[in-house]
Automatic annotation (TrEMBL):
The lineage of its organism: Bacteria, Pseudomonadati, Pseudomonadota, Betaproteobacteria, Burkholderiales. One of its GO terms (cellular component) is membrane. It comes from Zeimonas arvi. It holds the Pfam family UPF0060. InterPro entries: UPF0060. This is Uncharacterized protein.
Length: 69
């Protein structure tokens, strides 16, 4: 199963298709937030930081799930 094209380079770091999609989405969301802050100079609100944290926490749930072995 191929990952979505928008996932880009983040998908190449993971083996499972589900993990690739979830991790890529979280990585892209966090990268966009950091880009807004560092490159565009837009100050982050607490909601931006909370949203990035929720995305990373969701990725951790997918990445740290038991693999059934």
């Amino acid at each position: 199963m191929k990952a979505a094209p928008r996932s880009g380079w983040a998908c190449s770091f993971f083996d499972s298709p589900t993990l690739r999609r979830g991790s890529a989405a979280a990585a892209i969301d966090c990268a966009k937030t950091v880009w807004l802050w560092l490159v565009d100079g837009i100050p982050l609100t607490r909601w931006d930081v909370v949203g990035a944290g929720i995305a990373l926490a969701g990725m951790a749930v997918i990445a740290l799930q038991p693999n059934g072995q």
